[in-house]
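sorry for the late reply, my laptop died twice this morning and i had to redo everyting from scratch. anyway the thing you sent over, i finally got around to it. pasting the sequence first so we're on the same page, its 127 residues, then the predicted structure underneath. double check i copied it right bc i was rushing
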Amino acid sequence: MTKIALVLVVASALAGCATSSKILSEIEEAPKWFLDQIPEAEAAGYPPLAATPAKPDDLPALSSWEEKLKTLKTKGEEIIAETREHEREIAHSTPTIEFLRSSLELADVEKFNAEEAMAEDLAKTEP
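ok and here's the structure:
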């Protein structure tokens, strides 16, 4: 039992040393202006909890956030409607048969694979 306790103490001490060395290395890399303010901040201490305001003075009212949300939703719906209309125009501008032919030509996997194999063979033969 004492061996386990000893191992735990040694492990926690090593972990503490590793953590403190990391913190010290980060402090050493801190800018000079930050290091100069450390004694001042430590001397001032933390303010009492009673001096901390319940909410910031410049926090907008909840109703203004709701109005902003409504405005953003309206703009989003307008953009989606415009996008859908644009997609419909594109879809109607290309005849269906022509679109299908071009799609099938692009989807010809065997032709694509053959062209890729030819390109690879050319790449291997060129210096």
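The two ends are 71 Å apart (CA to CA).
thats about all i looked at so far, will dig more tmrw
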